[in-house]
Amino acid sequence: MFDRIAGVYDLMNSAMTAGLHHEWRERAVDRAQVGPGSDALDLCTGTGDLAFALRRRIGPDGRVVGSDFSEAMLELARRKSGEESLPVEFGWADALELPYGDESFDAVTVGFGARNLADLDRGLSEMARVLRPGGRLVILEITRPQREPLASFYSLWFDRLVPVIGSLAGDPDAYSYLPNSVRSFPDPQRLAEMIDAAGFAEIRWLLVAGGIIAIHSATKTA
């Protein structure tokens, strides 16, 4: 499915969020607390936008790795990397069995991909494994707002209109999957509890865009 939608992925992200997804990624990078010389891993990187935001913050001396299980997404990410002169190591990886050594990174980020993991607990355990003690985990994800009138607007837009836009883009199944995956994903409180169980501390989350977007951050315990 992700291979099929790779060609329209960036366009659909901008259409669905009015272009705000770039700002949300920058806010996620703020919480990753990376700087010059840091080593960062962006899981479920898609076409690489969050990895590029990390690279701009880290500069030329650190390492940024972007991993995904969709080769079509990774091919687009590599192309964008060359066009924007933002070198990132893009490679295939299963987020439930990462091909990286223990304590390899200062930060691990996941942007709009955690809800796609078949086993979220196992994925969080892998993220903890590859982080250095004191390293930062940041998860940027869609969530369902609870307050009116935004809750009703969200339901109309995300549950009904987004699948229609997806049909026009040529893949109705993928953009019906999107709202369904959000409905089945843990709410912010439950996700924080799962992050805690994976061995993290200093767990915080920020709701933005009226509660449509949640940004969780945490620190790996020593």
Structure, explained:
This protein has 222 residues and is of the alpha/beta class. The chain has one domain: 3-Layer(aba) Sandwich (Rossmann fold). It has eight helices and seven strands, in the order ααβαβαββαβαααββ. Strands 3-2-1-4-5-7-6 form a seven-stranded mixed beta sheet, sandwiched between helices. The mean pLDDT is 88.
What layout of secondary structure does this protein have?
Layout: H1 2-17, H2 21-32, E1 39-43, H3 49-58, E2 63-68, H4 71-83, E3 89-92, E4 105-111, H5 120-130, E5 131-142, H6 150-168, H7 172-184, H8 188-197, E6 200-208, E7 213-220
Parallel strand pairs: 1-2, 1-4, 2-3, 4-5
Antiparallel strand pairs: 5-7, 6-7
Helix pairs in contact: 1-4, 2-3, 6-7
End-to-end C-alpha gap: 38 Å
Q: How does the overall form come out from the CA principal axes?
A: globular
| Count of folded domains | 1
Structural class: alpha/beta
Can I get a quick summary?
The chain is α/β, with parallel strands linked by helices and 222 residues long. It has 8 helices and 7 strands.
Overview features:
7 strands; Rossmann fold; 7-stranded mixed beta sheet; 8 helices; globular; 222 residues; alpha/beta
